[in-house]
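Changelog-linked ticket: magnesium ion example.
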Amino acid sequence: MRTSIATVCLSGGLVQKMYAAAEAGFDGIEIFEPDLVAAPQSPEEIRALADRLGLSLDLYQPFRDAEGVDEEAFADVLHRAEAKFRLMRRLGIDLMLVCSNVGTATLDDDEVSAGQLRRLGELAAAYDIRLAYEALAWGRFVDDYRRSWRIVELADHPNVGVCLDSFHILSRGHDPKQIEEIPAEKIFFLQLADAPALSMDVLSWSRHHRLFPGEGSFDLPAFLAHVQRAGYAGPLSLEVFNDTFRQTDPVRTARQAQRSLRWLADRTADLLGDEAGPLPRLPEVAAPEAFDFVEIKAPETSGVEVLLEQLGFDFGGRHRSKQVRLWTWGEVRIVCNDQGGSPAAPRIAAVGFDVADSEPAAERAAALMAPPVHRRTYAGEQALRAFSSPDGTEVFCSHAEDWIGEFDGGVAGTSTERGSARIDHVNLVQPWHSFDEAVLFYTSVLSLTPQPTQEVAGPSGLVRSQVMSSPAGGVRLPLNLLPTGQLAGDEQAHAQHVALACQDIVGVVAAARERGLRPLKVPGNYYDDLVARFRLSEDFVATLRELDLLYDRDADGEYLHCYTETVGEVFFELVERRERYDGFGAGNAPVRLVSQAG
Ligand code: MG
Ligand code: MG
């Protein structure tokens, strides 16, 4: 599999983009014309740099408004094209992208477009250049790949083929299955992009919101499977116009891009089975169905452990060689790490996922270029493999049985009076520049599945929430994207939380309050509204009000929950899921956000 990336995907100048692509392991790049025009280097210097970096220059793009025009306009097209062909020879590029006409087309006639592409192809042949004709989703007349292929077929010139772009095909809802009917030698190029499900005009959608495969809502494995079945053997190239990636570190974005292709190739190979051909595979790993632990970096005096005691956790002991303490409740394991006495605000530092077999999971993460985390271990201690997620939270693939013996002096056995508990979800707040990367990270590295996004109004902006979950729902990981312009005084918006599922939240909270827990205060208006929204008994609402419990109900069941106060950047949520309720009480989130901003 050869991989390529359009320079438009990355921030910086052309040379910087080239270094980033090479460093991330791309085999080639598409030169986006405005990047070359703005570069101080000559075409020969760019060509020499590509050579030195081991990058092939796969495509020159875009050439616009070429066909469907009258003869007078076409004479200008040929003039323009010839200048570009000469430039491409200086660059050593032999493939040019020709977009379907958006601006100047006046003739809605396949014969005319085909005839003009043929003549353009003849001119290109003289320069040993080939043309890849792409139907833009907003083309004036040609906006469907099936039509662009019909025109290429009619043009019938060896130097004229099609470029397939997943965005243009899937954004319009066109069935990609007919790609299989196009002869492999006529598919000159393939561009891949994902995108979120949005209802907006397709041009703005494309220019601002394209994503790397695995970050959006398109079924790219199915798309690529059709292209592979057609026999396409050229590079898998990414063409992603995205407002965020234009302003973030190009090296990091390029790595993210390369990761997306490795994931996509693997998923497509799964679909193709024996027909997968040269698509590389990743070590296979089932999604984790339980959290193994959460590590909180907090000095012993920070108050985090006071909260855990109030919630009813048992002290599980001190680590043999590190300043780390374990707290347990049922299947919940919280590790508090002294962070070397640092006064930094307590925060979630690591999440352990209970994967069936940690070795292939770590191999898979490495193959996806997840940055490894190195922690000191001593003789006789388990060396757990961990990786840094895009927001810096460390991700472990681990099993409690392997490491829990390293803690001594805790309470033997767990008390059963509070009933069992498990980690229901871990909510991680994502900085704006790494949100999409985080979705891809958890999709590809841990095989979690993104759920539809939700937006929640907070006091200082809309919070976008993307839940990543395992197939059976044992692991739920809501990722919250912060509003970009945080208002002063709403530091709370940065807080992350660990939600603990228990069986009798009323009893648990009543007991915790006796131990001194002060749950986040819920305003009286909320309960008045609750009575209006749901038919609940007065007694029940009185209990909720007394304990500051929030409530939600849908067709699947009920959800009772409450929050602790925040310590540093961490708070806890207690939840009780009744029947098959699968949400997070999203309707209650604005109440929480306002109360926390207090
Ligand atoms: Mg394209
Ligand atoms: Mg929550």
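Closing comment: Example verified and attached. The first helix runs from residue 14 to 23. The mean pLDDT is 93.
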